[in-house]
């Protein structure tokens, strides 16, 4: 099989395309023939050594992907050969990720892709959708489904990003009123396509006052991408006992706040790094994301605010570079 590998941490040029034997699934594993691989910021950061150091002779990048079950390891009764699936956290706990024609994963990391759902969508789910799910369920609501956010207001900071887009779609499906902030008319169009009910350019006017008009009692959950720059706005609009769920450090690496003024809000700050989330929360995320896909509530493509950028396997370095440069939408690697 063809696979992209790297033998040391470094720039995208450290990766090379090579031939490797098709792996065999071990007990409790499945072998997946990949059709698409998704590329996320975590992929290039791991490869570059910013969030993990290489501790194996070689590694293949890629957490997310979609494809077809090729064979089953001993003890697997939850899947069948030929079943379309989407993968999550593939490279977590093993050196081999989704930038390859085949990969083995524990069976629970291969989730059925419903009929009618594309491989493009399947490869776009993992990191963005499951991070969005954990952000939304960091407060009073433990599961995302029809009606679970009825009567609540969710603020998604940076709604044009991959996680922000997924949060908008999931929250709207669950019945929330969704407010999002963006920085340009082009990104406003993406947030509208995702299904946001109220879209505010944070560079114009008084966004805190505008949000308070929409939610006089404050917003229940904030999905936050840039806490260092947004914390004053977040505290100004959060409801008492609300939750600010932080999944990235865009705009700065340090967060400061006036403690005494914050005490009275009784709010929760939830920091999220997907690979440290509790297993039961990961299972819940996979189940709820799968249900949203089956309901047609979670989709990709420009019509849902997620432009798609396709690269061939031999162009994986360029795909990583595009994500590192801030490509808007979803970067995918085509494997057939």
TrEMBL record:
Report the InterPro entries cross-referenced here. Answer: ADH-like_C (IPR013149), ADH-like_N (IPR013154), ER (IPR020843), GroES-like_sf (IPR011032), NAD(P)-bd_dom_sf (IPR036291), Zinc-ADH_QOR/CCCR (IPR051603)
Q: Which residues form the Enoyl reductase (ER) domain?
A: 10-333
Whether Zinc counts among this entry's keywords is: no
List, alphabetically, the Pfam families matched: ADH_N, ADH_zinc_N
| SUPFAM superfamilies found in the cross-reference section | GroES-like (SSF50129), NAD(P)-binding Rossmann-fold domains (SSF51735)
Please list where the region (Disordered) is annotated: 1-22
Q: Which SMART domains match?
A: PKS_ER (SM00829)
- Keyword NADP appears in the UniProt entry: yes
**Where on the tree of life does the source sit, at the highest rank?**
Bacteria
Keywords assigned by UniProt, alphabetized:
NADP
GO terms for molecular function, please?
A: oxidoreductase activity
Descriptive protein name = NADPH2:quinone reductase
